[in-house]
Amino acid sequence: MQNPVESEVSVPDPFSGFDFQAHGTDEGLVRALADLTFIRKGENVLVLGGIGSGKTTLAGILARQASLHGLTVQTIDAPSCYYPRLPTRYLECDLLLLDEAHIWVDVAPLALLALILKRHELGKSTILVCVDSNWQRMLAQNNVGTPRTDANRERLLLEGLSDQSAFSPELTWLTSQRWSPVVVLHLLGCGPTLYPSEAEELAPYLQCQNRPPHWYFLNTGEKNWGALFRKN
To answer: What contacts 64, CB < 8 A, 6 or more positions away?
Structure first.
């Protein structure tokens, strides 16, 4: 009796249909991220681009790859920052996809800071997605804007997070302050250099960290990828 011949399984290319060259996106980096090493290292990804340029689609492909490989994935949309509590699964999952990051910075910047830094302490990865023009606007702000919701909203979010996971004394102090968006983004590891006075104030916290959060930067350009992505 003849032995059956083992057939090779053809794995479809998750990026089939994307024209990386047309949009100036770093194809090598995107494909390297798709091997999910960044998740195993607890690293992060920031996806910037124009409206309708494929930011969420690209982030979703990376999240789907993670799920297919048995990793736990959760997605937070913008309205989640208005919730009184964030579920424990947002801290515990291997990969968190957080869309519309600029809304979080406007509404609940300290909750965003606490969420991502606590995940960093736990060795967990996050993907942030933001419209490029909104990202530039955040970097130009000197102070945190007026919250788009009641004054207790961020406090409730922070209480919910601290109930779920013990904050270090340094993280508790950090989230008790009112930082500018630039400082928040810097602390998350994806913002500009701080002024000397800000760096001096933050020195005790920064010195207690083994390493700052590491981010990979992807830009999807301004064009719409919808017509270029072939759905299987």
So the answer is: 14, 73
Say if residue 224's pLDDT is above 80: no
Q: 155, 109 in Cβ contact below 8 A? A: no
One-character DSSP codes across 52-109:
TSSHHHHHHHHHHHHHHTT--EEEE-GGGGGSS---THHHHSSEEEE--HHHHHHH-H
Beta-sheet strand order (sheet of 125-131): 73-76, 95-98, 125-131, 44-49, 215-219
Write out the two tokens for 2.
């003849």
Q: What CATH number does residue 96 fall under?
A: 3.40.50.300
CA 187 from centre of chain = 13
Q: Per the domain annotation, does 160 fall within a domain?
A: yes
- Is there a domain that residue 158 lies in? yes
Number of domains in the chain: 1
In a domain, 12, yes or no: no
Q: What pLDDT sits at residue 9?
A: 44
CA atoms within 13 A on the CB side of 171: 21
- Full domain range(s) for residue 208: 21-219
10 falls within a domain: no
Residues 6+ apart with CB under 8 A from 172: 162
pLDDT band of residue 66 (cuts 50, 70, 90) is: very high
Q: What is the pLDDT of residue 17?
A: 75
